[in-house]
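pipeline stage [seq->struct] | target=Fe2OG dioxygenase domain-containing protein | organism=Arcella intermedia | residues=552
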Amino acid sequence: MKHKLARAMEVIAKHEEKERNELFSDLPSRYMFLANFGPVSGIKQEQVISFFQKQDGFERVITPRNNRPYLVLQFSTPETASSCHAKLHTTTVDEWSDKVILLFYAKSAPAQDESYKSIPGLILIPDFITPEQELHIYQQIQSSEPSFELLNLRSVKHWGYKFNYHTNHVDPGKIEQLPPFSDEIIESVMQLGKVESRPDQLTVNVYEPGAGIPSHVETHSDFEDGVISLSLLSQTVMNFKHPDGESFEVLLPPRSLLIMTKEARFLWSHGIPARKTDLIDGALVERKKRVSLTFRKVRASPCNCPYHAQCDSWLSTPVGTKEHNTKIEDKFVKEIYDTIAPHFSDTRHKPWPKINTFLEGLPAGSLVCDVGSGNGKYLGTNPNIVKIGNDQSLKLIEIARERGFEVNACNNLYIPYRSSLFDVVLSIAVVHHFSTVDHRIQALKELTRILRPGGKLLVYVWAMEQEAGKRKFGQQDIMVPWHMEKLKYDPNEHAQEEKEVEKHEKKFMVYQRYYHVFRKGELKELVEGLPGMVVEEEGFDHANWTVIARKC
């Protein structure tokens, strides 16, 4: 235990960048470090709060900066902190898998996490309006046309232009002019000099307690730089996430103004988790009704920002003809899979049961073409059929060939086989990597072209509608990060850390892959639109929409 205590103090001192005698007090104080209970511990702060609320004088949990592997407990007096220390220090907690509680008196409260201020272009202005202005604006919103549109636990209305949540784009026709109450707000914003273009679109959301909005980046092709959000009635916590996985929680108080420009607007995604409480200043706070006013300037020309992975204007720019990849398909699909091929292959071993059953049920001698075969996961099933793999990643082809499979290089947009050749064609997790509707249709056309009459096509694509507890998508065209540990694939990168902080300290290379996630019925509709194809079965498997179709 002596070594464990010394190591815990060493970790805290390292992160605080101070000597131990500057941090720790031999005498009781109101503040105590709780070691090994930071964000990487697997124990939520809500659980920590609930546990320590049973101790006399406990006031709150303070979260140090930068997701550090410890927390700070604040008590009303040094005496109540001392009482808690005497009861709990070096004890274990059954419901936390016998995790040991290590408490150290702190000389003072550490600085709280305000690192979100490092997000370039993010500006938060508290008390931008007065309580009287807040009430007036809310009353005007309630009494003004148009009427509210009801969504899931929130109501929305638009002025200037309507944002269509089904297409994730602005409808082109102008609707109601901006309401008079917005003029004063816009004038005050423009005087700040933080945004260049005067907003001409307003969206008002009324959030009921428990409501949220999925994480998203405001559509590049629809709006210019400068997204402005004014909060009314109550506070909430908004999450900001960088494509490399770094994230911050930002408290938006009532009457505060949030301005997103540059990276904050174009690169970082933002969203509000759907929950009924927020952790604010170390205490659980129940949400109340909240109103947000979002002002934006509708774009008149394509976006030319440098953040290509998030820019739908750039993503949809084709290169050459329909038989050639778009820029996004080259840079964020082909190049990425060549880069991550060994790591990707290590995570792809066992065939999914339904696909395996489909292949095992084929008649002996069937000729099967797997387009997008990757490391050959499905080429090793059913020895009684003939299987040919195909992929555009040369690195994955090398891996599959090393396993003894027959695999060729090809692009799904132009498959180098004669028409009506194969009994069965597989497309597992491929079509969702094409960035335009034309390319998704072209890919499906090629799959059906090489299929013989009477042959069957099996297609799997990622689903927009995920299972409970799985990831949620705020839009259909997304970038999905692939995290590859530097330690595992670049052993000379840096030395190993001690076990307590190893998980927290590991560094990752993050690679972004493009996906178009399909809504229910979308894949079926595309396949049914192909000449001579009849959909025999539509299903949902492993968070994918699936279709089995027959060629007439």
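stage status: PASS
auto-comment: Confidence is low (pLDDT under 50) at residues 487-506. Residues 327-346 form the longest helix (20 residues).
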